[in-house]
Design a protein that fits this description.
about 180 residues, about 85% helix
Length: about 180
């Protein structure tokens, strides 16, 4: 099992952190509008039995992780995906803590976030590695290396499977 290059992981962490910071500065009205739309989708998902909800969460997260990785062929997508995820979490955290305590927010996010956030950082870092292969050796070489590079996603799949199980349990615990 290989991991992405250390500087790719550092770049991914930096982009995510920048997104978090900018997200925290997002106007509350915009965040509330976003949260209302997410809430309507979430209410429908909460009606699913736990195995179906787990599958839905895992499939969504794996899709984002795979797009982050393969998007490296086009160079920019992993950075955009990671930045947007950071902005969303930062904005939701800022809005959430206006009505609840930071501790309550962390209690909902940390149990699965400690697995999910590193998984996304690793998948984006693997995408950055792929982008570096495009720069260093060309697009065709990067496409040929997809199989080898995809081995970097094994820890991502494991982390996301754990995160989805915890998130499913949290949803049923607080609904």
């Amino acid at each position: 099992m290989r991991l992405p290059r250390l500087y790719s992981i550092a770049a991914a962490v930096a982009v995510y952190t920048l997104g978090l910071g900018l997200g925290a500065l997002t106007p509350t009205g915009l965040v509330e509008s976003y949260m209302r739309s997410v809430r309507s989708i979430a209410l429908q998902a909460y009606m699913l039995p736990p195995p179906a909800l787990y599958t839905l969460i895992l499939a969504n997260n794996l899709t984002v992780a795979l797009l982050s990785f393969i998007g490296g062929l086009l160079i920019v997508p992993p950075l955009i995906i990671l930045f947007v995820n950071g902005v969303i979490l930062g904005a939701v955290a800022a809005a959430f803590t206006k009505w609840y305590t930071l501790l309550e927010f962390l209690a909902l996010i940390l149990p699965h976030g400690v697995f999910e956030i590193p998984a996304f950082i690793l998948s984006c870092a693997a995408g950055i590695d792929l982008a570096l292969t495009v720069f260093e050796h060309g697009f065709r070489a990067a496409v040929r290396s997809l199989g080898d590079e995809a081995s970097k996603l094994l820890p991502v799949v494991i982390l996301l499977a754990i995160a989805a199980a915890i998130e499913t349990g949290l949803i049923y615990a607080v609904r």
